[in-house]
């Protein structure tokens, strides 16, 4: 369990989770950005089926207080937190809000480098350093030469800076998992996967994970995302309706004030207009 983000933000009040955007809505560049993090999640669901003290998020916003604005999340392709409830109060999380998780920050994040470079090696690693994320993995199978990096790199936070870890798979003792690449004939195609490993370098999960299970998990994740977006849309529509009602009320009040000013210009007190009975 890592707890490094408990200080209240000095300038802004911390919002409630339902007030926060669940992700950055940035489309993924390729199917692997959906498949590989979900494969890691699906493997953990089987490997840690009897544990309820962990959470793995896929393309989900992490809201924290170490930046300039707690309303702006950082969104990794995947992340793992330990020492938190598997389901928050029995419900699915829309986002991961550190100040609602007793300050527990992710122990591991996964960044998959995109066709359009998004500063995975600089800006985002700096955010994770400030946040106190212990391990950061950067997977870059296509554009590693462009970026002057290796296709697979894992960094560990040591003395407030990230140090690249040697070897592969990389064993992460604080988490109890190793991470590495593995080429596997997957559903009729040979593909490079990211997989969890045990301390001896054996792969977790390959024989058990089926295409149907992974697709089912992807569909569940998509349903939760769509539901969260619908809730956000309903909240936006309600806010717009309230704004419109406020504008109508303001316009009516302004019209009433103009009428009162006009009556006063005629020497009539608008607060003491004669009633219908007074005119008979």
TrEMBL record:
Keyword field contains Phosphoprotein: no
Q: Which Pfam families match?
A: Uma2
Against InterPro entries, the record matches this protein to: Nuclease_put_TT1808 (IPR012296), Restrct_endonuc-II-like (IPR011335), Uma2 (IPR008538)
- Where does the Putative restriction endonuclease domain start and stop, copy by copy? 37-170
- What SUPFAM superfamilies has UniProt attached to this entry? Restriction endonuclease-like
Say which domain of life the source belongs to: Bacteria
Q: Keywords in alphabetical order, please.
A: Coiled coil
User: Which Gene3D superfamilies does the UniProt record give?
Assistant: tt1808, chain A
Name residues in a coiled coil. 211-255
Q: By its UniProt entry, which PANTHER family does this protein fall under?
A: SLR1095 PROTEIN, SLR1612 PROTEIN
Protein's UniProt name: Putative restriction endonuclease domain-containing protein
